[in-house]
Design a protein that fits this description.
This protein folds into three domains: about 10-185, no CATH class; about 190-280, Immunoglobulin-like; about 285-420, Methyltransferase, Cobalt-precorrin-4 Transmethylase, Domain 2 (2-Layer Sandwich), CATH 3.30.950. It is about 15% helix and about 35% strand. It has helices spanning about 15-25, 75-85, 155-165, 285-295, 310-325, 350-360, 410-420; strands at about 10, 30-40, 40-50, 60, 65-75, 85-90, 95, 105, 125-130, 180-185, 190, 195, 200-205, 215-220, 230-235, 240-245, 255-260, 265-270, 280, 300-305, 330, 365-375, 375-385, 395, 400-405, 405-410. Strand 14 (about 215-220) and strand 15 (about 230-235) form a beta hairpin. Helix 1 (about 15-25) runs antiparallel to helix 2. The longest helix has 15 residues, at about 310-325. The protein is flat and about 80 Å long. The two termini are about 35 Å apart.
């Protein structure tokens, strides 16, 4: 299996001259930002950030051993500076243009996956070039920037995130490696959040400042997790910008590419393997179909029935585990292999509520919904994240957590984390929140 980072598409290898050409033909203006250190009496560049389609106010901050600057350039002027190795004219700051070859990336607008220092909203070119190590200085992202007459920054990472990258401090590495980051947004268009409405996949395409010419969408999907065959369809982007694809249900996995002028502009989709989510509109039955198609996971559990005490205890333990993390859903009437068995005894809602209230250490505000799937009744039990003051929730005196698709007793380390007053209780790796 070839590993990949969701939210990025690898691009072919590029030389420095190709990056200069990209900057020169990018959408202006260019936000040109840099950071330098004084070491052995010399001013040395250690970070340079070039971002197109972004206006920039002039900034020049001098903290003695560290200088940070920003200005606005035209794409042509920015390309000329990169070619000549000029980071700033005032103060005079030069660098040796890179000679190495890099493998840049295309960062998509997939909202579930944010690559470090990536731009929000628009898909973009992302190239990171190395610079030589500075001599006589060792800048650290954790150091404070304090000097009379200059704005105070608690950390260098905070200043760099603010002035160079437009990113939160936690995305700026504490151990700073000298380099040049080039980010060039593609303003032709991008996908909005996909959703499924009554068996129809809706893929919104949002146009930008540049016209989407000859735009089309290529879609591929599998209906169930066990299928090996992919269905495919390619269609032109309609004038409305909303592409509607009748799949007859909620595909287990779906990916779509937005093409423009024979170039991939953006990607969207969902898959259990990547934890990407899709909004499901329409009936509760379709929502249940999606959860069955996904299979059991850190936030989805199946229970065939709640007849004997062992089954009830297992069910209550899973409710406690969901409440100790990011929540989840239990489908009662579905076997572990995703087969819909059906379960609907008399007063099923009261039975479920009594199990939860009678076996958990604190109340959990579960939501219940009876639905008919494939001609058989099942019950959706939606468990929200529990009250932080009540965590860790216990079932029959024991603390449970989720580990992938199973429920187990918490380890000592997990118990400490759940009990810590300032630590998030979310043990889930997924972003879905159940209310």
């Amino acid at each position: 299996m070839v590993a990949r980072v969701v939210g990025t598409i690898p691009l072919p290898a590029e030389e420095w001259s190709q990056a200069i050409t990209r900057v020169g033909s990018a959408t202006g203006p260019i936000a040109w930002s840099w950071a330098a250190v004084r070491g052995q009496g010399n001013l040395q560049l250690f970070l340079l950030a070039i971002t197109s389609a972004r206006s920039a106010d002039y900034v020049l901050l001098d903290y003695g051993d560290i200088l940070i600057g920003r200005e606005q350039l035209t794409p042509v002027a920015a390309a000329q500076r990169l070619r000549r190795g000029i980071a700033a004219q005032t103060p005079a700051l030069e660098f040796t243009p890179p000679t190495s070859t890099i493998y840049p990336m295309w960062v998509t607008a997939e909202v579930e996956f944010r690559y470090a220092l990536a731009l929000p909203e628009w898909p973009h070119y992302y190239g990171n070039w190395s610079l030589p190590q500075v001599t006589g200085a060792n800048p650290s992202g954790a150091q404070s920037l304090i000097k009379a007459g200059q704005p105070f920054y608690a950390t260098l990472s905070a200043a760099l995130g603010d002035i160079l990258y437009g990113s939160p401090p936690n995305e700026v590495q504490s151990n700073l490696s000298p380099g040049i980051l080039i980010r060039l947004p593609d303003l032709r268009g991008h996908f909005g959040r996909p959703r499924v409405n009554e068996g129809v996949v809706e893929l919104p395409v949002i146009g930008g400042r540049r016209r989407l010419r000859k735009a089309s969408v290529e879609v591929t999907w599998r209906d169930t997790p066990t299928e090996s065959t992919w269905k495919r369809q390619a269609v032109a982007v309609p004038r409305s910008g909303l592409l509607e694809l009748d799949t007859g249900g909620v595909p287990s996995e779906l990916w779509a590419l937005l093409w423009c002028d024979q170039e991939v502009v953006d990607r969207t989709g969902w898959s259990e393997a990547t934890s990407a989510e899709v909004e499901i509109a329409g009936s509760p039955e379709l929502r249940a179909e999606r959860w069955i198609a996904e299979g059991e996971s850190v936030q989805i559990e199946y229970k065939q029935e709640l007849k004997d005490d062992s089954a009830k205890e297992s069910f209550a333990g899973t409710v406690a585990a969901f409440a100790n993390a990011a929540g989840g859903v239990i489908l009662v009437g579905v076997a572990d292999n995703s087969e819909v068995i059906g379960w609907d005894p008399p007063k099923a809602a009261d039975l479920i509520s009594n199990i939860v209230h009678g076996r958990l250490s604190a109340p959990v505000d579960i939501s219940l919904q009876r639905v008919v799937v494939r001609g058989k009744p099942i019950w959706e039990v939606i468990v929200p994240t529990g009250d932080r003051q009540e965590q860790p929730y216990r079932c029959s005196g024991r603390v449970f957590v989720r580990a992938l698709g199973t429920t187990r007793q918490a380890t000592t380390a997990e118990l400490r984390r759940l009990a810590a007053p300032t630590t998030s209780a979310t043990l889930s790796y997924r972003r879905r929140r159940f209310r």
